[in-house]
Amino acid sequence: MSDGTLTITDRAAAVRDPGFCRFHTDNTVVVQWSADHGWSDHSLEPYAPMTMDPGTLVLHYGQSVFEGLKAFRQPDGSAALFRPADHARRLARSARRLAMAEMPVSLFLDACAHLVAADDSWIPEEPGQGLYLRPLMIATESALGLRDSRRYRCTFLAYPADPCFGRAFTPISVLTSAGTVRAVRGGMGEAKCSGNYAASLLTRKQANARGYDEVLWLDGLEFRWVEELSGMNVFFVWRDDDERRGVRLTTPPCQGTIMRGVTRDCVIALAGDLGIPVTEEPTPIDALMAGARSGQLVEMFACGTAAVVVPVGRIADGDDDTMIGDGQEGAVTAQVRHTLMEIQHGNRPDTHGWLRSVRKDLASVHSSTDRQ
């Protein structure tokens, strides 16, 4: 992690080969809310540590939500945010679930644009790379009574980033959650809150110890229905019974236990554009394992802002470990990722209006389509 003292030469090297969020940029943007005054204007501030009272509510009762979105270099040298209004709306939904103040979409967009404009030189340019933005909103009131806070602070951070599993998009392996529950309906499964991710860490650590890259979470009642990975949604490519169609794509439905991924929504839209049938349908783990063994399941991939689209080459449920296809990336996975990245980097027409260009001079955002 950068301490803010990188030389110009070191910074250039960091931007060319950033890894995943190893180096923070020079600045942050801060927005505050209080019960008495509402939302403040956003302010650009140098990246610096935060000082916090040990009695601050977030440390005791976990009122903490965040987002993850990216800005990409465009062919004309400008920068563009990818679907920021959708991330703003999801942050507001997460905040609502934790009884926190809901930030207006326009304020979120202005804050993101200001930060991207100020730290434009940190945006990497290779395919798959981008400037990763992490808006983090926390309760800042000091009080020990069990209640919602009367003050919140949202800090927008930025990091040059490769995809979290690398730009080679090497297939990953997954292990099902054996009896561990991360989310149930009515809980916080679809809220992007810190506790949601903390609940996945132990099981992920145990999976890593067994040689797997990620956890494939099952439902918390029957431990039968496939849901998502710790930080990514999942898709399955099946051989279609109608040979004229070739393959079909499925993904678990959003029923309150999994993240409503922005990248997931992109994949569904792009599959339609590419003529690939796609449906949201419940998938039992036994059918998934049987499909992998029989060859009916020809590909599996995970997707998210941090990872983009990464193939899953191997899946295990308990001691039942099987390869998906030949264990390598399949044609559908590669096509979907390539199409998405081409749009993100401005090399393919943005027919869905997902890109919002950042005007460096005014640090504002404009778009040809109104998605607020």
From TrEMBL:
Name of the protein described by the UniProt record: branched-chain-amino-acid transaminase
Catalytic activity: L-leucine + 2-oxoglutarate = 4-methyl-2-oxopentanoate + L-glutamate; L-isoleucine + 2-oxoglutarate = (S)-3-methyl-2-oxopentanoate + L-glutamate; L-valine + 2-oxoglutarate = 3-methyl-2-oxobutanoate + L-glutamate
Necessary cofactors: pyridoxal 5'-phosphate
Keywords: Amino-acid biosynthesis, Aminotransferase, Branched-chain amino acid biosynthesis, Pyridoxal phosphate, Transferase
InterPro entries, per the entry: Aminotrans_IV, Aminotransferase-like, B_amino_transII, BCAT-like_C, BCAT-like_N, BCAT_family
Organism this protein belongs to: Micromonospora saelicesensis
Biological or metabolic pathway of the protein: Amino-acid biosynthesis; L-valine biosynthesis; L-valine from pyruvate: step 4/4; Amino-acid biosynthesis; L-isoleucine biosynthesis; L-isoleucine from 2-oxobutanoate: step 4/4; Amino-acid biosynthesis; L-leucine biosynthesis; L-leucine from 3-methyl-2-oxobutanoate: step 4/4
UniProt-recorded Gene Ontology molecular function terms: branched-chain-amino-acid transaminase activity
Matches recorded under CDD domains: BCAT_beta_family
Signal peptide range in chain numbering: none
NCBIfam families attached to this UniProt entry: ilvE_II (TIGR01123), PRK13357.1 (NF009897)
GO biological process, one term: L-valine biosynthetic process
Family: Belongs to the class-IV pyridoxal-phosphate-dependent aminotransferase family.
The keyword Transferase belongs to this UniProt entry's keyword annotation: yes
Uppermost EC category: transferase
Coiled-coil intervals, chain numbering: none
Highest taxon in the source lineage: Bacteria
Pfam families: Aminotran_4
EC number, UniProt record: 2.6.1.42
N6-(pyridoxal phosphate)lysine: modified positions: K192
